[in-house]
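User: quick one, fold this
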Amino acid sequence: MKKRSFLVQIFLFPLLLGALVGCSLSPTKVYETKEGFSTVLQAKTKKPIRITDETAIVDARTRFDYTMSHHPKAVNLRWESFAQTKSQFPGRFIDDLEG
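Assistant:
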């Protein structure tokens, strides 16, 4: 009886240990490679971008992306705000924004 119990422990312990170690997850690594929107825009233009009090900045990204990072004077406007969503042709722009 003791011999059988000992053999079960010898085979069961490594099997259980292997299952626990094999099923563990390695930690997730997150890398941020995106540059800020102003540095990307400045790299594509010849002159530096000058934002004055008269400058209107429209940020058309998703609300989540806008909330995560945006220029302090930017306004978040999505194209869906100006489109018909419940019509025969969803996505068409609204003709009259006042009505």
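User: anything notable?
Assistant: Strands lie at 57-59, 74-76.
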